[in-house]
Amino acid sequence: MKKIVLILITLVCLQFAHAQKSLDLNYYLPQGVTYDQTIPTPKEIIGHEVGEWHVTHDKLMFYMQTLAAASDRISIENRGATFEGRPILLLTITTPENHQNIDQIRKEHLAITENGTIPVDDMPIVVYQGFSIHGNEPSGANAGLAYAYYLAAAQGPEIDAILNSTIILLDPSFNPDGLQRFAYWANTNKAQNLIADNNDREYHEVWPGGRTNHYWFDMNRDWLPVQLPESRARIKSFHKWMPNILTDHHEMGTNSTFFFQPGEPTRVHPLTPKMNQELTAEIGTYHAKALDKIGSLYYSEENYDDYYYGKGSTFPDVNGSIGILFEQGSSRGHIQESENGLLTFPFTIRNQFTTALSTIQAATVMRAKILKYQQSFYNDVRNEAARSKTKALVFGDSKDAAKTWHLAEILNRHKITFHELADDANISGRFYKKGAAYVVPMNQKNHRLIKAMFEKRTTFTDSLFYDISAWTFPLAFNVDYKELPNLSNAGPEVTDFKPLKGKVTSQSGYAYLFEWNEYYAPKALNRITEKGLRAKVAKSPFTLEGKKYDYGTIMIPVQNQSLNADELHAFLQRTAEQSHIEITAVGTGLTRGIDLGSNDFDPIKKQKIAILVGEGIRSYDAGEIWHLFDTRYNIKLTKLDASYFGRADLSTYTDIIVPSSYGSFQTKKNAVKLKTWVKNGGTLIGYRNAVEWFEKNEFVQLKFKKDTLVAKNIPFDQKRDFLGAQVTGGAIFEAKLDRSHPIGYGYKNNTLPLFRNTNIYIEPDKNSYNNPIQYTSNPLLSGYISEENTKLIKNSVPFRANRMGKGRVIVFTDNTNFRAFWYGTNKLLMNAIFFGESM
Ligand SMILES: [Zn+2]
CA within 20 to 30 Å of 734's CA: 52, 56, 122, 630, which one? Predict the structure, then answer.
């Protein structure tokens, strides 16, 4: 036995050494297989061997297109474009015979999820394989070259059996923009004599690195919210095919080996069936066998979990599919020293190739069993749905149709059935308006997915989470919602989901008004001030011509503007359409309440806004803000990089945003520079731990509530769990909102759900009017928080606005722009920008 092991090790080492010297495609491919000579290898098309350089997205696409043209096993489709205009391609790979009937096969496959009795034994299994959703985890996407070649060119009974019984959906790059950014970095820093020294520049990407997409989002959190173009394409393919297995190939730290799911057994979401994990484990035996064969170390059932359904390997689990996460220790560049010896890029690629192949080998053998699992999953869901005491959910915001529409848009993307509200209705003390509310019947195929999106959960079997512990969508959107015992409020089903509209009621010779509640009101206001038009904000409610106007109503007078009355009307008409709001023309300034000429209308300045980015700034937080301004509100935002911040002239900016920051940005020099600018009239807005930095540098006087927890009777090996349990990784809390304060303008209710992922707790000010947002005495709405932190958060404040010289400092301890789907709190930042001077 020992001898055989020794021979094996020698063989592996020889093969390894060989791979280093002259890299060959055979290093990746299984032995003893012949290949169709008419199919081009990657090197013939892209000019280098797989693993010799980091493949750029352009070359990856070029190869996949060439391969598809050369092989009758492959069809290719372009499903859209990334923010940077790169194609989002998908390859469908199976036998030419299956391709002939592909649509028929797809329809029959979908029927499995609708019909509990149809025989599935002779149907093919559908496997969706995707790579490198984190662009700087490149071994997956690079393995895709060799893997696609193998699927196109391999000959013999094994590949025939696989292709005959499997429809493979191959997504060569989950994150084209990130992959391109990373490939540029790794390739431009590569030396002819490969440098394995971790200190080399090759292994230290410049900010923000290639992990994220164009706006610096972690796209592996967006499978459920579906806010980014790449996710939209992916989710569309998912629902089009309802794959049985979905794999997600990642990388982790350089000193790690290889991970495949199942992950931590105690951290599986309760809506995921036990059978899902059992099948994942059985598929895992195929990975183990394949990795054993090539001598690679690996592990499972540790570190990673299956909790948040917004991740690629967990989203499938609530949809009758099996999501599988792979994590390969990263060489990052081309070769790196590690605790396991020299880690080469080709070695990482080979492990990904090997498990991509073991996945479809498992799928082929386990085909009938997995198809039956999918069928029984939907059988169970149908039974659950029919028995559900809750017959429907209603959600809406009677004053914000756009925000409501965007939540419905997510349901639409997930093929969840929903209806219009039949008529305006008062339900449990909340008003729901037809056109700004929807009804979701619970007795439907996606019953469990709806639960995963709408449920509030506050008890957990484990206190550790790999990601957020709550994502309750109606709270994130701050819409009213209610479970209903019947369908009496449901109008017609929405089958043709129409885009949003906007209009001006008529032409006015006096003034125009619009309320601040609509989601896109800031977009309209910015367009108006950018045009050089005068606008004012109402600091009190009033009633005019039979209509009530709330705090924060925007008024545009007709007289003394740079546009004449006709031009102004036409401009506002376009503004209303583009911003999906209704602008009301009024004929008089005399109101019940403050008149339109009152001093209780504050003028609104044209804003010039900058955000700090770069080294020392948390890129996710900065990217969320950039995306919000740029893509939702069309507001120009200057990105000031920390590297030249010290030299930049700040005098023209009205507002500067400092996202969550750390270390190298938080210098005395930067503090002095910002302080001088504030004293001269600027509005400084800080988020999360920038707040502590502001406090330390006396921008703002705050008292923090700190926990005094010490470990008692906790042994060393439980230290990590003990500390981990104190992390507030992401949960939702309720605050009281003072709607008369400018920070509360545009909100309908007196309470507001907030997302929080810090443990920074500010004591309330002794004057209540300085605490316009304050957590309630029992604020947890959904998610996990430790007992100790529960005590600290109650009655604390997540917001403060203070004057300093001619300017002001505004701080948020919470992330109000979280991951592009927290529509409910996006307005807070807009209020700080446009109404900061009234605070
Ligand atoms: Zn990753």
Answer: 630
Query: How far, in Å, is the centroid of ligand 1 from the Cα of 778?
Result: 36
Token pair listed for 97 = 């015979």
Cα dihedral angle (316, 322, 323, 328), rounded to 10 degrees?
Answer: -170
Q: Is the pLDDT of residue 327 over 70?
A: yes
Query: How many CB atoms within 10 Å of residue 502?
Result: 21
Q: How much distance in Å is there from the Cα of 536 to the middle of ligand 1? A: 47
Residues 6+ apart with CB under 8 A from 182: 54, 135, 136, 138, 205, 209, 210, 211
- ∠ CA(670), CA(676), CA(679), 5° rounding? 140
| Longest CA–CA separation in the chain, Å | 98
The first and second tokens of residue 208, run together, are 């923000």
Distance 134 CA to ligand 1 centre (A): 5
Q: Are 519 and 826 in contact (CB under 8 A)?
A: yes
Residues with CB under 5 A from ligand 1 (ion): 134, 137, 250
**pLDDT tens digits along 436-479:** 999 999 999 999 999 999 999 998 888 888 888 899 999 999 99
Give the pairing type, strands 166-171 and 125-131.
parallel
Query: What does pTM read for this prediction?
Result: 0.95
Report the separation in Å between the CA atom of 263 and the middle of ligand 1, taken as the mean of its atom positions: 15
Instruction: Name the helix (H) or strand (E) containing 405.
Output: helix 401-413
44-58 b/e with 16+ CB inside 10 Å = b?
Answer: ebbeebbbbbbbbbe
Q: CA–CA separation, 98 vs 117, rounded Å? A: 23
Low-confidence winner among 174-178, 204-208, 722-726 (lowest mean pLDDT): 722-726
Alpha carbon of 636 to ligand 1 centroid (Å):
31
- List b or e across 94-107, with b for residues whose CB sees 16 or more CB atoms inside 10 angstroms: bbeebbeeeeebbe
Whether the per-residue pLDDT at 398 is higher than 70: the answer is yes
The CA 251 to ligand 1 mean position distance, Å, reads 5
CB 509 within 8 A of CB 568: no
DSSP 8-state code for residue 602:
E
